[in-house]
Amino acid sequence: MPRYAANVAPGTSNTAGAPGAAPGTVVTTGAPGTSGPPKRRPAGGYNPAIHGNYDPNADYAIEARRQEEEDEAAAEAAAAVAAGLPHPTQDYSTTAHFNRFTGRYQASGINPNNHSDEAKSQRQMNAFFDVDAAANSHDGRSLKAERRAKQLTKKELQAFKDKRREKKEEKRRAWLRD
């Protein structure tokens, strides 16, 4: 649970606190009595005991200014992301696919493979039953292998032979009728 501390300099207000926090308060998320990790100075930072008067053109001032700009940019980016805006350093981009003959926009999944005989029959069969389940219902064996493994009974075998004999007989008699 964040706690609120009023350790903001007089005359300033920090509105980056939690929603509903009073102006001039700062939200700290560390343990009570700690203020988070100490901010490290870059080697050679400004020290009045060493450098005397502050020189804005000195190396330590330029480094400090660059660091402040980076911190401000990171804070702005975090605020934009929190507000739901895109990251300011990222470009907004999108892709579109256009038909080469008509020039009109078309979905990216549409391609010549969709118009093959196999794809058409797949779409039509999917409308009526589950093609994938039917294809996988034979444990990976081909239909031919399934039929070969099936043993016919004597009655079924005799029925097939009789049927074949009837067809032959029908063809033999057909020329007599014509």
From TrEMBL:
Low complexity bias locations: 9-37
Region: Disordered, residue numbers: 1-94, 137-178
Amino acid composition bias (Basic and acidic residues), ranges on this chain: 138-178
Full protein name: Uncharacterized protein
